[in-house]
Specification:
The chain is α/β, with parallel strands linked by helices. The chain contains four helices and seven strands, in the order E-H-E-H-E-E-H-E-E-E-H.
Length: 156
């Protein structure tokens, strides 16, 4: 199975050291682009062994019984809990099966095929195409022109 992110997907990774403002920047990007009519999806990647399912709750009990996919549907939201680790390519494939998005933002991206924005004083990761300097307008224009506009070519 191919595990690389297909670059026809509109994906941008954002990375930096802890407490450099990654989540705040992503929240601001999502808010700004959503207000402009773009449809955004986001992924948070962590190396910590955590989960969102709560011990004792019905969804947790379903998984304990052996269910590999647990879905919680309520009037507020629908949550899909895949009871296995997945690589970013698989996650993006699943996101695109659910709906079409103008941009998928990956916090903590390390996949070499994902173009990335770096925050702060951290070693550059492969395929870093922009370093955020604190100029929010600049990063928004970059995303709209180079990423969402489809002008980024990872071969150049």
């Amino acid at each position: 199975m191919d595990t690389t992110v297909k670059m026809n997907e509109v994906v941008i990774g954002i990375y930096g050291k802890s407490d450099t403002g990654k989540t705040t920047l992503i929240e601001d990007i999502i808010r700004k682009l959503t207000n402009e009519g773009f449809k955004i999806a986001s992924v948070k990647i962590t190396n910590k062994k955590i989960g969102i399912d709560t011990k004792g709750k019905d969804t947790w009990r379903h998984a304990q019984a052996g269910s590999k996919l647990v879905v919680l549907s309520s009037p507020k939201e629908t949550d899909f809990i895949l009871k296995k680790s997945a690589n970013i390519s698989e996650i993006i494939r699943i996101i695109n099966q659910i709906d079409k998005y103008d941009l998928i933002i990956v916090e903590g991206a390390n996949d070499k095929y994902i173009p990335k924005i770096r925050l702060g004083n951290i070693d550059k990761r492969e395929n870093t195409i922009f370093t955020y300097s604190g100029d929010f307008k600049e990063v928004i224009e970059f995303l709209k022109k180079k990423i969402i506009g489809g002008k980024y070519d990872n071969k150049s």
